[in-house]
Specification:
The chain is about 25% helix and about 25% strand. About 5% of the residues have low confidence. By secondary structure, the protein is an alpha+beta fold.
Length: about 230
């Protein structure tokens, strides 16, 4: 902990000249990791942070609700806010999240806002640690997948990492389990590549050839069998 702006003061009455960095959060601390600062807010005796919107869950029997749990928010410090989506900064943020999960048993889950996901503590620590050690990107957690009205399978939250979402087109998406497994592989590939600007062709696990094509706006990458 590199700075506690409310040390020795009640959260409702911060000392003169000391303002809440994040609106509505008067009880927060600054944490230092690898030379980078992060703010943890929503701490007692101040109010909890706003509860996140959640739509997808991993390694949890049900989505957490504000009636049962309170939320804290961990984010880059204000001077790092402009680069908040950079991969090196996010790796350190998630590594710090792993540290917090290991140290505090009362943490139920980690919510990841860009994908509206709630990730069970053990699963989060496992897949995130593996990624930080050189393993695959934790696509199920830091992104999610959802079925569309026209039977495609689309990623949720990949745009945070590369500025693009992934869409697995029918009939390739007909087998949801196989399509999700393919999506996990492709998300890892795309995060490593930093996105896709032109058509690409790859070999699927079953040996078939796949075409990856970005839309005209570059916001969506469609995938189908060649």
């Amino acid at each position: 902990m590199s700075h506690d702006p409310a040390a020795g003061h009640a959260a409702e009455t911060p000392p003169a000249g000391d303002e809440a960095v994040w609106p509505g959060q008067l009880a927060w601390i600054e944490l230092l990791r690898e030379g980078l600062t992060f703010d943890l807010s929503g701490l007692a005796p101040g109010p909890a942070s706003a509860f996140p919107g959640l739509a997808h869950r991993f390694d949890l029997p049900a989505l957490p609700t504000p009636g049962e749990y309170e939320a804290m928010v961990l984010r880059p410090g204000p001077h790092l806010a402009e680069g908040a989506a950079s991969l090196p900064l996010m790796r350190e943020l998630l590594a710090l999240g792993c540290d917090i999960v290991r140290q505090f048993e009362d943490v139920l889950a980690v919510a990841w806002g860009p994908a509206a996901t709630a990730i069970g503590r053990r699963y989060f620590e496992s897949v995130t640690s593996a990624w930080l050690d050189g393993g695959p990107f934790p696509a199920l957690g830091l992104t999610a997948f959802t079925a569309t009205a026209d039977a495609a399978l689309e990623s949720v939250g990949l745009a945070f990492w590369i500025g693009q979402e992934l869409r697995i087109e029918p009939p390739l998406s007909a087998d949801r389990v196989a399509a999700t497994r393919l999506g996990i592989r492709l998300v890892n590939h795309l995060v490593l590549a930093g996105g896709l600007n032109e058509d690409d062709r790859i070999i699927a696990p079953d040996g078939s050839r796949l075409v990856l094509r970005p839309s005209r706006s570059r916001a969506l990458i469609s995938v189908w069998r060649e």
